[in-house]
Automatic annotation (TrEMBL), chains A, B:
<protein>
    <recommendedName>
        <fullName>Amine oxidase</fullName>
        <ecNumber>1.4.3.-</ecNumber>
    </recommendedName>
</protein>
<dbReference type="InterPro" id="IPR016182">
    <property type="entry name" value="Cu_amine_oxidase_N-reg"/>
</dbReference>
<dbReference type="Pfam" id="PF02727">
    <property type="entry name" value="Cu_amine_oxidN2"/>
</dbReference>
<keyword id="KW-0186">Copper</keyword>
<dbReference type="GO" id="GO:0005507">
    <property type="term" value="F:copper ion binding"/>
</dbReference>
<feature type="active site" description="Proton acceptor">
    <location>
        <position position="389"/>
    </location>
</feature>
<keyword id="KW-0801">TPQ</keyword>
<dbReference type="GO" id="GO:0008131">
    <property type="term" value="F:primary methylamine oxidase activity"/>
</dbReference>
<dbReference type="GO" id="GO:0009308">
    <property type="term" value="P:amine metabolic process"/>
</dbReference>
<dbReference type="InterPro" id="IPR000269">
    <property type="entry name" value="Cu_amine_oxidase"/>
</dbReference>
<feature type="domain" description="Copper amine oxidase N2-terminal">
    <location>
        <begin position="65"/>
        <end position="146"/>
    </location>
</feature>
<feature type="domain" description="DUF1965">
    <location>
        <begin position="239"/>
        <end position="300"/>
    </location>
</feature>
<dbReference type="GO" id="GO:0048038">
    <property type="term" value="F:quinone binding"/>
</dbReference>
<dbReference type="InterPro" id="IPR015798">
    <property type="entry name" value="Cu_amine_oxidase_C"/>
</dbReference>
<feature type="modified residue" description="2',4',5'-topaquinone">
    <location>
        <position position="470"/>
    </location>
</feature>
<keyword id="KW-0479">Metal-binding</keyword>
<dbReference type="GO" id="GO:0005886">
    <property type="term" value="C:plasma membrane"/>
</dbReference>
Length: 793, 793
């Protein structure tokens, strides 16, 4: 059984997305949880100056005390009839997830404006219900907390526009299913031995099985399962599909109705293992090359590189400590006029709340809603693959960050705790906060007499969710002028396809490119949906489109042109009803959320512009039209951004359990956009990040992050009277002096040589790099600056 | 006359684009040259290890010896009949510019492949011809160099598809014109006093005049000139338009045919000063508010800012010197497998040549061709404004960079020399080269057993051209995987408009937004054209479009779906003929330059993908259709990128003197794209960077660079067998250990706590930030790492 166990651990760890959700309700939690908490011995951050948030963090997930008390309450509830996970079978009710049910915005606004007290705390409880005939996953709301005489448990429905609080659980008895599959696989070892030269019971170089694509009906479940080579040394198993697939079908919870039905190899479907076995006996049965592991999947290559690799590279340092403040109790951060709260959710990871700049509200909430990866291909695995990663718990898989690599060594690292499957999981150092200096200035100008330059430093709040093969880095960046950026980067292993040499579509690179002996890349769209509840100087806002349009105009002063002038102009109009909107061709429109009732000193409506940021070009939406895999479960994926009216009943565009009910999702985003008026209303923008990812040889072994970024920015637009960064930036203004080296001339004339002298800088403490460099003087208390001495090259 | 002089210096320095070209041929050069060479006392770079380029830099501009010898030769030439600038009038022939005429690519390739010697050196000479009836600007080629018996002077025509080597000089006698205007302005002081409360002769707060928009016919010239408030303390004059304009018209060089004709104020055209004077006497003449200077135009604000402003921010250091090498003689740079040459041109600034990666050719030439700024507005100044900045010499205005602000203090700074107007100008420290560490990793992955992360360091080659009001930062960035990025950022002062309160278009924000009492922004398109002569693994290349398209397909394995599946696929086709191409909607196509005759180990054609990079969204092209201001002088501005066949007769898409002959330009790019076959040919891509710039209050006082970037990237696509960065990157791989702090649990169960230990790193020298942070051990020889100790917050 040792080899069985090994094999099954591999399955449970790798068939991530679909299986994770099952695991959460089963004792297999042990394997999932063994992913936990590294860097456990990291430093404690000393609180030198206590810093306190002005409000309570009403968005915070349940703390340990709340969870402990709640757990006791839950297990005493006859209504829920819960069994401890360690004693439970799939015929019991078990606790899947426990998290905060964030208060309604309406209530929070009353708290923030002082018209009401702190909103009640409620919990969101997810139960795997096994005692009923049809197994379900059921959502409850429970509150107020802490549990007391008034505390009640109610079906949680008001945030699901389906009107339901539950979905059918397509594979409730996962342990049984796993054991059943093991049994079946024993009977087909001869097939895998003949085609792949090994089987799932070999160790350490046997086979795994993985799946991601499921066809879920009412109580039925089907999936094509692919064999993979095991990888005993790293995580390269993702790159080792074997091109042999079988279909698994279950109807009801009764194993008598389960079957391993069809097989697929080399472009052909076989209706049973027996049929494939027969085919194998025929002469001329075509066997494909094997996709075997080797140094090509290694993420490290220690062979000698070009000169310079052996030297330490440049490194960012922070000589005087952070310039931001954190209230660690409330997860409240303040930097250069920005203020905001952080919360974490086990499904969706990090969100930011009540972002203010110089006291003005800008964004009430911004955070990930769902992460879709939609594949295409001509084989049964890639061809039906679509992941929605909140089901795999993107918060829980916000793994510990590595100081000096994921974020600067000097960053402040925050931890987050989650309550899942009856246990608490603390992800130490899973969020980093740091200030960084861009490689370029924020602004500059050289005039006749001066040169003036401002530094571009910015604040980053970052987390990385590793969802099986992929590592999603999600970050929020704050700039000195009031700009806020939301940025996504993807790395990790691609979910690759077996390369079938005889495939016609492989020959024309229809779904990707061959990248190793028997491996092909697999095209896929990443579409990650974010909510941005903008409150630009208040909650009454209007979304304005400003077109940059060609125009032909006759001007009274324009006599020299004999015909009307071809020029351009701005055409402004408010979007009056809820709508899905794409980024414009040729960047030919600005999208600005304006406050009609708040103007700057020059009479212009204060606004924040929403614009593609510093990712690779413009973020994209889903290429596929009316996806068969998704049905109605992710309607937000079809446009770049969406404008809807804020409602307490529509707090999120997506719901993890949608994955199980694609035809009738718990939250159907399509219904959010229903023609309501949105002028001078409380607006919510849902926008997508992501890209069309067509991996090529450069994605082996891992996708690179410098070319995988996508971003949306929120930039102040007529929000202030002038550039707000002037009040918080550092920089220098230098005067052209009249000393220094003479310029070299020719043609017999002399010109004045000039040199620079500093005429101003914001503070005496600022490291005087310039003086040091030009005049060989060191700024005081800046001994570290010695390290700036460049060496020859 | 002192105030006259003051006023005229302001004119010459500020009415930059149009006037600069005039100045280059006149004694006013003194004013232009007073912009020169600061930071003259910067360090010398010690050459520790001599490093030599494998070839001569055949693209290099003329060196001092060449220029000195050439100058002697030129002034002895009876054909050119040159007069020294100091003695010349506009009726003489004077030398405008002297630069290298770069060898034809055909000849360079023979040199690089060893089939021929170093190509001959030739010069490109531009002469302001004043002795003829119609004044002209004339291009000559002169070579071979150094001057000898075989050296000849020929009309330079072969690189101009007009077939001409000259343009009519619309304002040859600029000095006369300036004196004439001064005379005229004396006669209208009463008008400016009444409307603006001062005149051009007041000091220090009098008026300047500036212009940018010209209507140029055959020997005729007209422009609307606007009054500006002088700015005696900084460069804020750009923000001080006064809303009063007059039209200047010249026909022939005879002042008798010159006139100050119409006037414009408050939306009305007056046919003469007298007419405006009469109108002013009428009761009820509406006077606009004045646009006056004040602290609002200051680029520095030293008032107290938010907490933290007083602390030094994070700073990049380079503890062990640069990891790149430079051959300073040949301007040849080598970093991590990349090799390339640099050249500078006085008109176009920096270009890079023969960029190779691991020995393979990638880009033969990349560099700026032209920088267009096209405005729109309803007043006579903004309404006709279109600058093409190479006429103002973007190389010469590559000003000295400020260490620690424009580029890191540790950067290597290079200088460039130009030969203009008979003088040599050296721009010290006008190019910087440095490596930087991104704030994020290049790749990462967390698996069951390991976490592995690679550093993202990159090399930047940067220059800044300050063209009057605007500072254009142009840079070339090299990444460890072979990616090359071309990035533009704009900063400096906007060219703003006077805000006329009664203007209907101002009321509807038709061309911009009011941003101060009497100032409005002015919408404009920046379109900067770059040449990228790609030679992907050789010169025989094909441009392939790969569409990411929705598809409906029936798969044999897809029984569970009862209808054909809605999915997507790739559709690949080569572009067969020269074409202009836009970036696709929804990023729905990849553009890849492939080599049909070179495949990687997996049989895939090696290519480089051309893609929008990390600027703000996707770079844009000109919004205006068939621009009246541009006529045919900038046909490259109408599409995002262009694919043409390389020809020695088409080395550049643009020509500075096009500005003077918009209807019949010297180089008409429109003719480049003439239906030639481009499959398996030597291809050249011309692409545009830039943006639609609709400034708002946040652009006052200066445009910010973090939101003004645009970029195009060239990324390897199936170019190598796997990710090329693996051989040159640094990083760590860490193993999950089984010691460390226990995770905290709830629900009665325990999980294993884990901690990280480093199992590998590329070199012993690598700063072991991780160990330091997690285990409180310092890497050896890394005492500077002490500074990484974070302080509390």
């Amino acid at each position: 059984m040792a080899s069985f166990a090994k094999s099954w651990i591999a399955i449970s760890a790798s068939a991530v997305f679909l299986w994770f959700a099952f695991l959460a309700s089963a004792p297999f939690l042990r394997h999932v949880d063994s992913y936990l908490d590294f860097l456990a011995s990291t430093r404690e951050i000393p609180e030198i100056t206590p810093f306190q948030a002005p409000y309570k963090n009403v968005w915070a997930d349940l703390n340990q005390q709340e969870a402990d008390a709640l757990l006791e309450f839950l297990f005493e509830s006859p209504e829920l009839n819960l069994t401890e996970a360690s004693n439970a079978t799939s015929r019991d009710n078990t606790l899947m997830q426990l998290g905060v049910l964030q208060p309604n915005k309406t209530d929070i606004l009353c708290y923030l404006n002082g018209s009401a007290g702190v909103p009640e705390r409620w919990a969101h409880v997810v139960v795997a219900q096994g005692v009923t005939k049809d197994a379900c996953i059921v959502n409850y709301m429970l509150g107020p907390l802490p549990p007391n005489a008034l505390t009640e448990i109610r079906p949680l429905k008001y945030i699901f526009n389906s009107g339901r609080n539950h979905v059918t659980n397509p594979v409730p008895n996962q342990e049984d299913l796993l054991m059943w599959i093991i049994g079946e696989l024993q009977g087909v070892s001869d097939i895998t031995q003949k085609i792949l030269g090994t089987d799932v019971f070999a160790s350490p170089d046997g086979l795994d099985i993985r799946t991601g694509a499921a066809y879920i009906g009412n109580g039925t479940f089907a999936t094509w399962v692919q064999f993979y080579r095991q990888d005993s040394s790293s995580d390269a198993g993702w790159l080792l599909p074997q091109g042999l697939y079988f279909k698994l079908q279950t109807v009801t919870r009764d194993p008598a109705n389960w079957k391993m039905s069809q097989w697929y190899y080399n472009g052909l479907v076989y209706d049973s293992a027996a049929e494939l076995r027969e085919a194998l006996k025929r002469p001329g049965f075509l066997l494909n090359p094997l996709n075997l592991n080797g140094p090509w999947t290694d993420t490290e290559d220690f062979r000698e590189g070009p000169p310079g690799r052996e030297l330490p590279p440049p490194t960012m340092i922070q000589p005087s400590g952070p310039r931001f403040k954190i209230d660690h109790q409330q997860n409240f951060i303040s930097w250069m006029g920005f203020e905001f709260f952080i919360s974490t959710s086990q499904e969706r990871g990090l969100s930011l709340h009540n972002i203010k700049f110089d006291g003005d509200t800008v964004i009430f909430e911004v955070g990930l809603q769902e992460a879709l990866a939609h594949y295409a291909g001509d084989d049964p695995a890639q061809g039906a693959l679509a992941f929605m990663d909140t089901l795999g718990n993107m918060g829980i898989y916000m793994r510990n960050l590595v100081p000096g690599y994921d974020c600067p060594a000097y960053a402040t690292y925050l931890s987050a705790s989650y309550h899942n499957g009856g246990a608490s999981i603390t992800r130490k150092n899973s969020i980093c906060v740091f200030e960084y200096a861009a490689d370029h200035a924020l602004r500059r100008h050289t005039s006749d007499e001066h040169v003036s330059i401002s530094r571009n430093t910015y604040l980053v709040v970052r987390s990385v969710s590793t969802m099986g093969n992929y590592d999603f880095t999600i970050e929020y960046i704050f700039y000195l002028d009031g700009t806020i950026e939301v940025k996504l980067r993807a790395s990790g292993f691609i979910w690759a396809a077996f390369h079938t040499p005889t495939s016609e579509s492989a020959k024309r690179n229809e779904y990707g490119y061959r990248v190793h002996e028997a491996l092909a890349t697999s095209m896929h769209d990443h579409v990650l949906n974010f909510k941005a509840d903008l409150d630009v100087a208040g909650t009454s806002n209007t979304f304005v489109r400003v077109g940059i349009e060609p125009a032909t105009v006759e001007y009274p002063w324009d006599e020299e042109t004999t015909t009307p002038r071809n020029t351009m102009h701005l055409v402004e109009h408010a979007v009056e009803k809820e709508a899905g909107i794409n980024w414009p061709a040729n960047s030919g429109e600005m999208y600005i959320v304006m406050n009609d009732n708040s103007t700057n000193s020059w009479g212009k409506k204060r606004g924040y512009r929403i614009t593609p940021g510093t990712g690779m070009g413009t973020p994209s939406h889903l290429s596929i039209l009316n996806s068969t895999a998704l049905r109605k479960s992710a309607e937000w994926a079809y446009k770049d951004l969406w404008l809807v009216k804020q409602k307490d009943t529509e707090p999120r565009s997506a719901e993890p359990l949608n994955y199980y009910v694609p035809r009738d999702p718990l939250v159907d985003f399509g219904k959010f956009v229903d023609d309501e008026e949105v002028v001078d209303e409380d607006l919510v923008i849902y926008f997508n990040l992501g890209s069309h990812h067509i991996p090529h040889s450069g994605d082996i072994p891992n996708t690179l992050m410098h070319t995988s970024a996508s971003s949306v920015m929120f930039t102040p637009f007529n929000f202030h009277d002038r550039d707000a960064s002037r009040r918080r930036v550092q920089g220098v203004k230098l005067e052209f002096g009249d000393e220094g080296t003479q310029a070299r001339y020719f043609g017999g004339r002399h010109l004045e040589g000039v040199h620079l002298k500093a005429v101003s800088r914001p503070t005496d403490l600022e490291p005087d790099l310039l003086e040091y460099d030009t005049e060989r003087q060191l700024g005081r208390n800046m001994s570290w600056i010695y390290n700036l001495i460049p060496r020859g090259n």
